[in-house]
Amino acid sequence: MLKEIQRLRVKFSRGEEIKYITHLDLLRCWERVLRRAQVPLAYSQGFAPHPKISLASPLSLGITSEAELMDVFLTRRMSPSYFIKETSQELPRGIEVMEIKEIYLGAPSLQAKLRATEYRVDIETNRVPDDTRSAIASLLQADHFPWCHMRDTGPRHYDLRALIEDIWAISCGEALCTLGMRLKSSSQGSGRPEQVTAALGFSEYPISLHRTKLFLAQR
User: Fold this and answer.
1) Count H helices, E strands: the chain?
2) What is the 3-state secondary structure (H, E, C) of 117-162?
3) Burial of 187 per CB tally in 10 Å (0-12, 13-18, 19+)
4) Average pLDDT for 39-61
5) Which of the residues 59, 65, 98, 169 could staple to 211 if both were Cys, CB 3.0 to 4.6 A apart?
6) What mean pLDDT is reported for the chain?
7) pTM of the predicted protein model
8) CA atoms of 175 and 140, how far apart (whole Å)
9) How many CB atoms lie within 10 A of CB 165?
10) Furthest-apart CA pair in the chain: how many Å?
């Protein structure tokens, strides 16, 4: 088994065409792209070796993004520009590589460094803008906001407020409100934008959820 000698961090977008594919399907898609592009992938050891690629944070179904991050480990050095050139010919509609940089091989994983996620959310509403701004202020001023999320395994109770770093109104009209929000995201818990809109009193599910940025620990 060849040893990895290079680690590339890929920033890519996820468009409307693939917003309903699962995290596992996205990983499989990238595996196919990298193999077809003849990228010298490093593989894990063990009974069933798999390519050493990892994503920063799984994206829920129905959410688009301009900020996905993926680490790829290689057994032979490849320049970022050549990586883009070779993979861009194999990528399906809905995925676009935006940036690539080399990362120290021994650096912590993306999952370990992830701290917060930023979203842009569009939601239909008949509420007046002042009511929305008042609801945002009230939620941000609260010390706690008990929440119950139903999972397949049963209800999960937690403090939603603890997962919210900031919320702001980008624009609020008579029929549509666009919100920005920065939510905590780590192994201890991750905020979900549709839960935040519900906590703000919106009765409708957002018509658009878009991830705009991932925040990683600097050290």
Assistant:
1) 5, 11
2) EEEEEEEECCCCHHHHHHHHHHHHHCCCCEEEEEECCEEEEEEHHH
3) exposed
4) 90
5) 65
6) 93
7) 0.92
8) 24
9) 17
10) 62
Question: In this structure, how many other beta carbons lie within 10 angstroms of the beta carbon of residue 160?
Answer: 22
Q: CA-CA distance, 202 to 133, in Å (whole number)?
A: 12
| Token reading at 7 | 């680690």
With H, G, I as helix, E, B as strand and everything else as coil, classify residue 79. coil
pLDDT in tens, 99-145: 999 999 999 999 999 999 999 999 999 888 999 999 999 999 999 99
Give me the residue label for tokens 């706690």: 144
Give the angle subtended at the CA of 213 by the CAs of 82 and 30, to the nearest 5°. Answer: 40
Q: Percent of the chain scored above 90 by pLDDT?
A: 81
Amino acid 61 reads L
Q: Domains in the chain, start-ordered, CATH in brackets?
A: 6-107 (3.30.70.580), 113-216 (3.30.70.3190)
